[in-house]
Specification:
rod-shaped; mainly alpha; Four Helix Bundle (Hemerythrin (Met), subunit A)
């Protein structure tokens, strides 16, 4: 056997090993990228759900406040004491929902809305107290004075809901993209891993075949 033949086999073997090593590195990168995209999807999905929950809390706060306000007006006009428990129920629910939104977290600072809403709630309490005392005109005047503040809180709640829903939509889109990327990377990892496995198998088979050939005695 020529010296060229003797040296070409080790060189070919080392080239194959180097190729498989590089292939293994590529596979590791693909797997790491798949995991990273999967974690990104989970993170975006969790954040999306949080903002969607905040939006739901804010919508509920606005709805409950919107129910309580007309009931207060009816009470001022009629003096029907059976309306008071209903007013308190809806006002409490509105405050609870707003508190839940603040606890959940939001795009904008909800504390100013909560402060303004608290002032409106206190004002409604004063309106009820005036009506209970028999001061119908005073209660009506106080209720009218609360109108602008109530409209401001309502508008701010609607704006906050819009921002939360927009952020939730953005995060959902980001999560979907990450999910698609993770799926394609997983497919690429499987295909690349299969190809790498075939390469390793071929290299092992070639090595074993070479050893067998080298051990076979040459004919005389």
């Amino acid at each position: 056997m020529s010296s060229f033949g003797q040296t070409s086999k080790p060189q070919g073997r080392w080239l194959a090993v180097a190729g498989l090593t590089i292939g293994g590195i590529v596979l590791a990168v693909l797997v790491a990228a798949t995991v990273w995209q999967g974690n990104a999807r989970k993170s975006d999905t969790s954040a999306m759900e949080s903002h969607a929950t905040t939006a739901a809390f804010l919508q509920e706060a606005g709805t409950e406040a919107g129910v309580a306000a007309p009931l207060v007006r009816r009470y001022v006009e009629t003096g029907d004491v059976t309306l008071i428990p209903q007013i308190q129920q809806h006002a409490t629910a509105a405050v609870g929902s707003l508190t839940g939104a603040i606890s959940e977290g939001s795009v904008v600072d909800l504390n100013p809305i909560a402060v303004e809403g608290g002032r409106v709630a206190d004002g409604l309490g004063q309106v009820i107290a005036l009506r209970q005392a028999g001061d119908v005109q005073g209660a009506a005047a106080a209720l009218e004075q609360l109108g602008p503040a109530f409209e401001k809180v309502t508008t701010e709640l609607e704006g906050a809901v819009t921002l939360e829903l927009q952020e939730a939509s953005r995060l959902q889109s980001s999560a979907d993209k990450a999910d698609d990327a993770a799926s394609w990377l997983l497919i690429a990892s499987i295909v690349w891993g299969a190809a790498l496995g075939i390469g390793v198998t071929a290299l092992i088979a070639r090595s074993m075949f070479g050893k067998r050939v080298s051990k076979t005695p040459s004919p005389i």
